Amino acid sequence: MPKKIGVLTGGGDTSALNATLKGIALKAEELGFELVGFMEGWRGVLKGGHYFTLTPDLIDENRGGTLLKSSRTNLIKDNKLDEAVDNLKKLGISGLIPIGGDDTLTVGTALSEQFTTTFVTKTIDNDVGGNPPEGDAVDYSKMVNYFCPGFPSSAQSVINAVRDLRTTTYSHDRVIVVEAMGRDAGWLTLSAAYGQADLIAVPEVRYQPERLAEAIRKKHAEQGNVIVVVSEGIRNDAGELMINSEAELDAFGHTKPGGCSEIIVESMKKLLPEISSSAFRALILGYLQRCGSPIPLDRDISMRAGALAVQALSDGMFNGVATITRTPTGIEPTLLPLEQVLMRDETGHVIRRSLDLRFYDAERYQMSPAGAGYFRPLFGNLPRPDLSLDDRLIEIGEIG
Ligand code: F6P
After folding, report:
1. Residues 122-171 pLDDT 10s
2. Which domain holds residue 161?
3. How many domains does the chain contain in total?
4. Is 54 part of a structural domain of the chain?
5. Do residues 10 and 42 both lie within one domain?
6. Could you report the per-residue pLDDT of 315-357, keeping only the tens digit for each?
7. Please, how many CA atoms are within 13 Å of residue 202, restricted to the half-sphere of its CB?
8. One domain for residues 276 and 297
9. 0.85 exceeded by the pTM?
10. Whole-angstrom Cα distance, residue 33 to residue 90?
11. Which is the closest atom of ligand 1 to the Cα of 250?
């Protein structure tokens, strides 16, 4: 039975990472394990890496970010797996809990062939796990990892931002293109429906400028202002990311997206000459959707997922992932085998979970009823569209 266990956080941060760490620390204390926290993701287990004893009192589960800091270190590409295993053994660590998204889990999978490991997921992109089986009736309870810890808090930030923007959009008759994160998956962008976004464009559906322009034209004619929420990961006709600066690659070889909202605004100005070009704005939400405190639902389930990972190590269930399952009464942490959570194609590459297209109505650029069914346990019923103030004002006349 492991007596000294380690933990690290890799990849982009989320609001709920400290909550997962707190759940891990509390459970470790309860079971009598010493807990070692490695700083800056996988970098922390390499030569020169820093580590310290992690106790529950050090961790504030209501604070966003990660006490352990993070990095996108790729032990596979850097050929450092053996060094990491040696260091973990030298320190007397008998089990490791990496908390991360697909990249961290990919490195963790390779490490787990030589070292006792159990995982907890996190990512605001919500792209680790599996969708409900195909078919007309969506069975949400069959989703692998119903959501990734951190996603609900980011979705709430996107919802708040879009809901708040409605007032300025109305006051100044703006057409605002808001850019949400999500490198490959449209989950976060779709959540904007709860903030009453007029039109939503996700990376799973190829961007078609003329179609979007037509949808904006129609909305603008109806209400005089429009909020479009697009995912940073949407792709042009050639299937390429729409990036507004020099393409940059991260340690895992992914091109960093960013700036598509600015590109879209420029093309909409050209396609919609009837709308004053001064009405258009692009707004990149950036880190404001990844920072700050977790929402209670996210915090609580993340703590429970962390505790489950420690319990799994204690019970000798290795190479598992603490995931989240939707049950008839709510959401529960569930331990699943790594292969079931981290899907791979025939060449061994990890397949990220895309937005289930049953959740999106591509015709209307909106969330579908099945999508509202997915988000209901997180945010309740989809709000009904506001009656625009214009409709309630009674016009006295027009000054001639
Ligand atoms: O992987 C999560 C994510 O937030 C993506 O949505 C985003 O593209 C990326 O990380 C940005 O990461 P950073 O700016 O921290 O490198």
Report:
1. 999 999 999 999 988 999 999 999 999 999 999 999 999 999 999 999 99
2. 152-291+356-379
3. 2
4. yes
5. yes
6. 999 999 999 999 999 999 999 999 999 888 887 778 899 999 9
7. 27
8. no
9. yes
10. 17
11. 16
